[in-house]
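Open question from group meeting: does this chain pack into something compact, or does most of it stay loose? Before anyone orders reagents, we agreed to write out a predicted structure and look at it together. Recording both the input and the output here so the notebook holds the full record.
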Amino acid sequence: MISISSNLNIMIKAVEKASKTIIRDFGEIEKLQVSKKGPKDFVTKTDKQVEKILIEELSKKKNYSFFCEEVGKINNKDKENIWIIDPIDGTTNFLHGIPHFGISIALQTDGEIVTGLIFDPIKDEMYYSEKNKGAFLNNQRLRVSNKSSLDECLFSSNHEGVKFSNLHMRYSGSAALDLAYVASGRLDGYFQNKINLWDVAAGALMVEEAGGIVNDLNKFNTNNIDIRASSGAINDKMLEKIKNF
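Structure tokens returned:
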């Protein structure tokens, strides 16, 4: 049995509770797709409701502060420990009934990400990592890909990255899951410009704990991050390919 910290245990329980709302509303979203009114307001309510549940659950045993996509910063008594939350990463997919999105939570302590959790509620895939303890998917240890040839590799980015690069690319619509997939070896690398901290905080730690390489995110503003993440085997080659991106 894998030993996890009390903080990670709290995070797991929080996302398990919040995911019930996502799964319920996702079924309704699929129905709303055929209506004339459209589901845009509905998905916004889901984002806010999921974030509210996460904040409530994470606050039960800790007085940590928060940095969230919807409500922004919440300064509590403990300002050195910060929960970083993206309630639904992949909102556009969710909005269109595409089952590829996840809840992302990271814990930042004294400016360093020390715990990360990404939960895909539709596939029931729980990715998590803690500093110096490795990365896992449903209790199975994760390792990044060991491919060394770019021709054999698969990369992900947003639409701008896909258009820029002649690498083998995918655009999935969820940065958190892209990074989790790099950590698990499903993807070999991920890069994107001008992205928010809550999109990548948990996944960046996951890639590193799975043996991969991520550039220093601390030198960027929290809402304007350029991220480069991959296995160590192809990191230099990927960076050379996208040096002008």
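Observations to bring back to the group:
The chain has two domains: 6-141, 150-241.
The domain at 6-141 is CATH 3.30.540.10 (Fructose-1,6-Bisphosphatase; Chain A, domain 1).
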